[in-house]
Amino acid sequence: TGFIGGPTYPHLHDVTIPSMVGILEEQRIPFRIWQSGQPRIYLTRPKVHIIFRSLENPNRLRGLNLAWFGVDELTYCRAEAWKVLCQRIRHPKAKSLEAFAVWTPKGFDWVYQHFISPKKLAGYEAVIAGAMENIAVLDVHPQYYESLKTQYDDLFYRQEVLGEYLNIYAGAGYPA
User: Fold this and answer.
1) What pTM did the predictor assign?
2) Which of 34, 37, 91, 142 could form a disulfide with 67 if both were Cys (CB 3.0 to 4.6 A apart)?
3) Is the CB of residue 135 less than 8 Å from the CB of residue 105?
4) H helices within the chain, ranges in order?
């Protein structure tokens, strides 16, 4: 049993689950989706059960026995949800216990402290990839990220597109 979480249920419903379904279809992996109650996906061949839940209330995550979990947009989730999920990867039949997340930098928050800072937690690793490496977007719209440069101020562009860790709200005045 695995778990994929996101900051809110609308985010899961509108972004994360459709992305997962798209990947499964593209890879021709047979699956069934069950949407009554909490949404779930069953991969029939390796017999994998994937639970999707919002991370808005970390206490609703208690009691799960997971082999793995993943989180979409981790910087928009509370640290308590990550802590509870770390306690949940304990499935007795799992060959390995794993966790992963994806995010956009949002200042020097708890995610930065856990994964990036010089004092990051032992065993935590991060792969840093800026938007310019997103060939799925760039192959279709080569100027997409460059067009954002005209809409964003420099610091926001560096954070959101280049994936830099910045404190965009620091200083005596507004940077723009």
Assistant:
1) 0.87
2) 91
3) no
4) 9-11, 17-26, 79-88, 110-115, 135-138, 144-149, 154-160
